[in-house]
Amino acid sequence: MPWLALPFADKHRKVQEIFRWCCSRVSIASRAERVLLLAPCVIATAACQIQQLKTLLSCFLILVLKLWNKYRVSNIPSLIFIDAATGKVVCRNGLLVIRDDPEGLEFPWGPKPFSEVVAGPLLRNNGQSVDSATLEGSHVGVYFSAHWCPPCRSLTRVLVESYRKIKEAGQKFEIVFVSADRSEDSFKQYFSEMPWLAVPYSDEARRSRLNRLYGIQGIPTLIVLDPKGEVITRQGRVEVLNDMECREFPWHPKPVLELTDSNAVQLNEGPCLVLFVDSEDDGESEAAKQLIQPIAEKIIAKYKAKDEEAPLLFFVAGEDDMTDSLRDYTNLPEAAPLLTILDMSARAKYVMDVEEITPEIVEAFVSDFLADKLKPEPI
């Protein structure tokens, strides 16, 4: 590779050799048995170096996981371009960038306005073509989906009804389907079920640019934009499923969410503060939300001012089967109230088990987490 990398210090070169030596064998234990026949001193040396290796790899892994969380990486390979001077993300989907622009003619691949990226003809399922300029002044849902994807088909059925309700309520709203289908026939079959617009399947370059613009890493994804083309929420899928009557359209993000089956997928996006409460009563959950909301708003505002995503999501969890499953999976105590931060990608948890949760306790817990002062427990 002709580029830079996170350092693996020279002083640990022998440890790296031990690591490669161990990894070249199916079983470290069986290798150790053979070494045992040579000399006890070799075993002692190897054990010491392996311990150094464990420490080194642990530190390295923590650093890598911090980067994963900071840039919300959900799969690999993943290539993210950032501005070295500011640390801000330039492009989340670098793999598509280098595929579409191998000569680097569009470098530094900074984000462009939605209106510029989507510019061109759009289709209706009856074959009629309209210009993308018709989207001006409307809220827009950019829908990344495909017929071969079962969750996509399920969401599409719900989204069709949501779309109709929003339109019947007199809201200026349009959806643009960006297909990930594997053939044009499949695209046409799927699009025939949709009452909204689509980027022509033949316009692969425009579909790819839209994927790049929003750093799409999985489908289905629904990005909701305001009339100026700014992102309101990247969690349109969750919002549609949680608000079947579309009463909260256009779904501006809430600082604190009540944990449900449909939004539990967000626990995998990065560290999440989850306050478990003792009752199924809505009043108990609402009081918990009000308790942590000022802290959540403060954190969100702080990072928004830096044009960065907040490093934490905030949830309140009541008593239901899904919450019980989460407690079991993360091996959490049954106590309530229970204040936690769960980091699924790092398989780590941070637990504050006290009799009473106060705003001061929550704020101190969050501050210590962000300052790396808390010791994680394994999930």
Tally of domains = 4
Mean pLDDT rating: 86
Q: Give the overall shape.
A: globular
Q: The CATH topology of the largest domain, please?
A: Glutaredoxin
Kindly name the structural category: alpha/beta
Reported CATH architecture of the largest domain: 3-Layer(aba) Sandwich
End-to-end span in angstroms? 35 Å
Number of strands: 15
- Helix proportion of residues, in percent? 40-55%
Main beta-sheet strand count, sense and barrel state: 6 strands, mixed
CATH class of the largest domain: Alpha Beta
EC number: 1.8.1.8
Family: Belongs to the nucleoredoxin family.
Catalytic activity: [protein]-dithiol + NAD(+) = [protein]-disulfide + NADH + H(+); [protein]-dithiol + NADP(+) = [protein]-disulfide + NADPH + H(+)
Domain Thioredoxin: 108-265
Characterization of the model:
By secondary structure, the protein is α/β, with parallel strands linked by helices. The protein contains twelve helices and 15 strands.
Describe the structure concisely for a colleague.
One of its GO terms (biological process) is negative regulation of protein ubiquitination. The protein has 12 helices and 15 strands.
Descriptors:
379 residues, 4 domains, thioredoxin-disulfide reductase (NADPH) activity, 40% helix, 5-stranded mixed β-sheet, 6-stranded mixed β-sheet, alpha/beta, EC 1.8.1.8, Thioredoxin-like_sf, Nucleoredoxin
